[in-house]
Amino acid sequence: MLSMIIEGIRKVSDADIVILESTASGTPVMANYQALKYDFPRVLMLDVKDSIWVEVENPLNKPLIIPTFWIPNVILSSDYLISVAPLRILNGQPNLTLTNLLSLVPVNKYTTRESYDQLYSLGIDKVIADLYFTLPFDLGIVEARQKFSVVGNDLTKGKTEEFNKIFVGEPSQVDNEITELLGMKAEYLDLIKVARVGLES
Question: Which domain holds residue 71?
Answer without folding.
Answer: 2-200
